[in-house]
Amino acid sequence: MTANPQRITVLGSTGSIGVSTLDVLSRHGEQYVVHALTANRRIDELFRQCVQFCPEVAVVGTAADALILEKKLRAKGIGTEVFHGEKALCDVAASSQCDAVMAAIVGAAGLAPALAAARAGKKVMLANKEALVMSGQLFIDTVIASGATLLPIDSEHNAIFQCLPAQHKRFPNEHGVSKILLTASGGPFLHRPVDTLDSVTPEQAIAHPRWVMGRKISVDSATMMNKGLEVIEAHWLFGIPASQIEVVIHPQSVIHSMVSYIDGSVIAQLGNPDMRIPIAHALAYPDRMFSGVTPLDLARIGTLQFESPDFVRFPCLKLAYEALKTGGATPAILNAANEVAVQAFLDQRISFRRIDDVVARVLDKVTTESSITGIDSVLMHDRAARTVATSLILQ
Ligand code: NAD
Ligand code: MG
User: How far apart are CA 191 and CA 193, in angstroms?
Assistant: First the structure.
């Protein structure tokens, strides 16, 4: 073991990003110590992870699951302390026993712990884009005030981060950057006839052609709300106006994003579509380390294609641009309405095309220009939007 191993908390360790993070960590055991692992419901998977990584703390969703996990761990002679609930998530994110936090809980549930890590001045590796979409300025102000290091895990934002000048990761447009080119795969329905979209099933929607991801983000990729959330995420991370963030469809997902400079240079970051690349980048930053990903074979890929997004096919992308333009709590409202609609689609309570319809109608009803003053106001708008979305779905 190296003299000062980085002590890591993985929030959402049983998810797609969480598992990839542990895969990278397992390749570099001498440099990292796992302080805490957390999961909502998949206790058996969390148990296996605790056996492998022996964290000091594990956090689960309910008291009943905490008891079950604790019993199983003790029977194996493992001393990991087990807690449950949101306060425990915030505690392991802010603990003096950890240096870096992988924020990989999906959706609004990840906001409070990610903010807690930022407030405590940690190295925050942010996968949970919804947290930044919801709280925007508040999150960035918190990072700046505490001196936290914010590193993007979303592959596009990690790519942009790598393509920006070292000294100008924020407000790069004041230093020669003309545009950010955010690439999008276009998801599974890029070329499906638009009039057949309403009949697609959850299984078809989550069958992403390039990336293996959690169910929610997979549906978001199919509607392109994912790219819309990423436009908002890029705006906050890099301090760039929406007018300088352009979405480019690139079905091969080999170029993870690009930065265009005023002299005509365009710098891109390429790699196989595997989240262990941005995860390894953030864990080792500013150094580099092996991620486990096979090297890119451009001759085998042969062709890279690009096209512009179609707002008729992907109305969620337009809704997200509009929400960012309106500002204030509107992105939080967009995010909450989308989470409710996506869950309803996954539960087969609404059709695919009703996702954008529900989000648009919630935005019409709840739109506000009031700004975000703190986490309580974010959560108030989040709850209001969820109530309206739920009642629209029941109609
Ligand atoms: P996932 O559904 O596979 O995993 C989510 C994790 O969050 C699980 O560990 C789950 O236990 C935990 N969780 C869910 N609800 C919770 C709650 N209420 N309280 C506490 N924990 C809870 O999701 P994922 O695909 O790993 O995505 C995680 C985040 O990373 C999302 O915000 C997503 O947008 C982002 N992201 C994912 C990918 C990817 O390739 N999967 C790429 C870019 C960004
Ligand atoms: Mg992404």
Answer: 6
